[in-house]
Design brief:
Keywords: Oxidoreductase
CATH topology of one domain: NADH Oxidase
InterPro entries: Nitroreductase, Nitroreductase-like
CATH architecture of one domain: 3-Layer(aba) Sandwich
Protein name: Nitroreductase family protein
Radius of gyration: 19 Å
Pfam families: Nitroreductase
CATH class of one domain: Alpha Beta
Strand content: 5-15%
Shape: globular
Structural class: alpha+beta
Helix content: 40-55%
Organism: Sporosarcina jeotgali
């Protein structure tokens, strides 16, 4: 049976940041994996995909995260917390990514070698803060894509940047190269999200 989805515009308008989840509702790990797989079709800088995910469903782990996340209720009542982590040493994956692209027939040998050489000249020599900025930008792209996919499948989300990132990294034994960037609570809403307005388009847009 073909799964039917709402039009993209409808999904965009329906997605709201939910903060009250049904704590009894659980989403199977396999379903979350499918959504993450789709989300990773998001673009990234030089296709280096510097995102990593930690899917947190263990109740004790969620309570621990709540402690250093301003005690936000959704940390504990959501079905899962998706931690989006940035790999600031994304250049370690250059060969694997580009040679996979070659194997898939998306590029020829001459151009793949040129791309590998260019990426290896640029990314390892870039300042650490520049690489963090790149990872954070790309994490935003994959996070938004994940939240829209979740909404299209009937789930609710809220992204959170307000948490103690150093404490999170310590709790999950992250290497220095990995930077916690955003937490996405995922589940079924137990109460409607608050509505919100946006600035008028003419205030934020110009045509030249």
């Amino acid at each position: 049976m073909t799964e039917l989805f709402a039009p993209l515009s409808e999904v965009i308008h329906a997605r709201k940041s939910v903060r009250k989840f049904d704590s009894d509702y659980q989403i199977a790990p396999g379903v979350i994996e499918e959504m993450l797989q789709e989300a990773t079709l998001a673009p990234s800088s030089s296709n280096l995909q510097p995102w990593r995910f930690i899917v947190i469903q263990d109740e004790e782990a969620k309570k621990k995260i709540k402690e250093f996340s301003f005690n936000q209720e959704q940390m504990e009542t959501s079905s899962a917390i998706i931690a989006v982590v940035g790999d600031t040493e994304m250049y370690h994956n250059i060969d694997e990514i580009y040679l996979s692209n070659l194997e898939a027939g998306n590029i020829d040998e001459v151009n793949v070698q040129r791309q590998i050489d260019n990426a290896k000249a640029l990314y390892p020599n870039a300042p650490a803060d520049a690489r963090l900025t790149i990872a954070a930008f790309d994490a935003g792209l994959v996070s938004m894509q994940f939240m829209l996919i979740a909404k299209a499948k009937g789930y609710d989300t809220v992204p959170m940047g307000g948490f103690d990132k150093a404490q999170f990294a310590k709790e999950f034994n992250l290497e220095d190269r990995y930077a916690p960037l955003v937490l996405i609570a995922l589940g079924k809403a137990a109460a409607p999200a608050y509505g919100s307005t946006r600035l008028p388009l003419e205030k934020i847009t110009s045509f030249v």
